[in-house]
């Protein structure tokens, strides 16, 4: 799995995952390919830098990422952003910040989220190229909530990335 991803720090000291390649356009027909791509992460775990907690990638993650109700509602640049965020799963987990805990309230998640849910803030940037010259113009920055479930086996599992929004602050210059 070849990836061109870096972690940078902005002027405020917050980390951003810089995704240097636009591999996916976020089109409807691509999500099966994205789901297949994400299966390569299954069985791995990555550590959140801020808390040193391990987050595991279970076999249900690729399907949830690619087929959740929240993903189905995405259109345009935000769909493209989520599609390309799939290239940076390890780095997004690493920079996750500001954990917020909530109890599990859904019966369907009694065992897979027995000990509740954690929401973390993550930020990533995608390149914007000039249509005529093909040259890099800037990076657009996106913010998302990384959702992690705390399962019956006392492990934390990546569940999805939700609420992706483009930041209105100044984009990163090239």
Write the layout of secondary structure elements.
Layout: E1 5-9, E2 15-19, H1 31-38, E3 45-47, E4 54-56, H2 61-67, H3 69-72, H4 76-85, H5 89-95, E5 97-102, E6 117-129, E7 136-150, E8 156-166, E9 172-173
Helix pairs in contact: 1-2
What report would you give on this structure?
This protein is of the alpha+beta class and 174 residues long. The chain has one domain (5-173). Helices cover 21% and strands 36% of the residues. The protein has 5 helices and 9 strands; from the N terminus they run E-E-H-E-E-H-H-H-H-E-E-E-E-E. It has helices at residues 31-38, 61-67, 69-72, 76-85, 89-95, and strands spanning 5-9, 15-19, 45-47, 54-56, 97-102, 117-129, 136-150, 156-166, 172-173. Strands 1, 2, 3, 4, 5, 6, 7, 8 and 9 form a 9-stranded mixed beta sheet that branches. Strand 7 (136-150) and strand 8 form a beta hairpin. Helix 1 (31-38) runs antiparallel to helix 2. The longest helix has 10 residues, at 76-85. It is globular, with a radius of gyration of 16 Å.
What is the helix content?
10-25%
Strand content: 35-45%
Give the low-pLDDT segments. none
Radius of gyration using CA atoms only: 16 Å
Categorize the overall geometry. globular
Quote the average pLDDT: 91
Number of spatially distinct domains: 1
Number of strands: 9
Order of helices and strands: EEHEEHHHHEEEEE
Please state the structural category. Answer: alpha+beta
């Amino acid at each position: 799995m070849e990836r061109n991803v870096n972690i940078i720090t902005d002027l405020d000291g917050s980390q951003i995952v810089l995704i240097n390649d636009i591999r996916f356009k976020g089109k409807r027909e691509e999500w099966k390919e994205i789901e297949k791509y994400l299966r390569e992460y299954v069985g791995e775990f990555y550590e959140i830098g801020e808390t040193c907690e391990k987050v595991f990638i279970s076999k249900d993650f690729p399907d949830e990422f690619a087929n959740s109700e929240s993903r189905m509602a995405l259109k345009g640049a935000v769909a493209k952003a989520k599609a390309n965020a799939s290239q940076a799963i390890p780095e997004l987990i690493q920079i996750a910040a500001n954990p917020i805990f909530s109890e599990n309230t859904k019966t369907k998640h009694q065992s897979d989220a027995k000990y509740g849910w954690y929401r973390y803030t993550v930020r990533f940037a995608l390149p914007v190229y000039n249509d005529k010259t093909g040259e890099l113009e800037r990076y657009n920055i996106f913010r998302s909530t990384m959702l992690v479930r705390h399962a019956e086996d006392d492990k934390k599992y990546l569940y999805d990335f939700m609420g992706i929004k483009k930041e209105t602050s100044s984009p990163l210059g090239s």
